[in-house]
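FAQ

Q: What does a record look like?
A: Structure on top, sequence underneath. For example:
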């Protein structure tokens, strides 16, 4: 049997990727973390990491031990849940969603937590495939996705229809809007921006739109909360789900321009059947179902 304390230290180290930060997280010293690692390596009989300066990579044995550490965490969490009182305001809940939805959702979750001091909510921004995988592995309790999953172990509940928005500077004159005028202004690109452009602009400028690779990019940013900032400064336009626009503080400096043909994405809330029966998860599921109605 692997030593549980050493295994947890190693799993945390792999999660954080830094010895000093791991020590801070666990309330230990850095030499203490290294000692736990060496003891675990002795118990396993093989090195678990290869150090490269201040960073490290896992050996094949390290990867295998990490999977054991993750599995043990999941098992211990399931054990705690089975013996805890099923209280809607007690315990941990892990939620995954897109970056824009995370920005929009988090204030609602914080407001809920004010009335539940023993409730801990973990919110993770991730791609849809990662969210589905996380819910299936019980790494996430709830997930918000834009394409319904038909996986037999998942239950999908429709949340809302979220509009894909063309966002312009508030002072921009959108009269007689054309693709040429948008290109003159310039596109504020982001990781999902090009697919959004293909989706929305091809729908409304089909006769002149040649694809996202023909757009004039003014700037690129991969921090979801900062995408509207260049638009607010008058430096370009962008395309975002409504949640990403609503979460931006400087609403007065942005304008959502209605296009002749609107584009909506359906939002779905997914969960494992047995997990959604826990009171705290059911309470947050209800909260998300209620609050997302304002996105429509």
């Amino acid at each position: 049997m692997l030593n549980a304390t050493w295994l947890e230290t190693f799993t945390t180290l792999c999660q954080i990727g830094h010895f000093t930060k791991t020590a801070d997280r666990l309330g230990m010293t850095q030499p203490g973390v290294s000692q736990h690692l060496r003891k675990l390596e002795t118990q396993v009989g093989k090195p678990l990491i290869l150090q490269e300066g201040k960073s490290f990579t896992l050996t094949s044995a390290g990867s295998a031990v990490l999977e054991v550490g993750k599995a043990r965490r999941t098992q211990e969490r399931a054990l705690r849940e089975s013996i805890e009182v099923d209280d809607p305001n007690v315990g941990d809940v892990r939620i995954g969603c897109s970056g824009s939805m995370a920005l929009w959702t988090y204030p609602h979750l914080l407001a809920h937590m004010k009335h539940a001091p023993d409730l801990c909510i973990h919110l993770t921004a991730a791609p849809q495939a990662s969210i589905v995988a996380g819910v299936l592995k019980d790494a996430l309790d709830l997930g918000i996705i834009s394409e319904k999953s038909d996986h037999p172990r998942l239950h999908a509940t429709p949340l809302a229809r979220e509009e894909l928005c063309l966002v312009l500077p508030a002072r921009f004159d959108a009269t007689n809007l054309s693709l040429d005028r948008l290109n003159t202004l310039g596109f504020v690109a982001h990781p999902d921006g090009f697919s959004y452009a293909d989706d929305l602009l091809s729908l409304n400028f089909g006769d002149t739109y040649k694809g996202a690779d023909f757009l004039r990019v003014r700037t690129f940013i991969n921090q979801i909360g900062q995408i509207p900032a260049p638009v607010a400064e008058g430096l370009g336009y962008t395309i975002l789900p409504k949640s990403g626009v609503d979460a931006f503080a400087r609403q007065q400096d942005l304008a959502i321009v209605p296009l002749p043909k609107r584009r909506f994405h359906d939002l779905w809330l997914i969960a494992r059947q047995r997990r959604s029966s826990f009171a705290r998860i059911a309470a947050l599921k209800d909260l998300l179902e209620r609050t997302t109605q304002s996105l429509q």
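Q: Is there anything notable about this one?
A: Residues 60-83 form the longest helix (24 residues).
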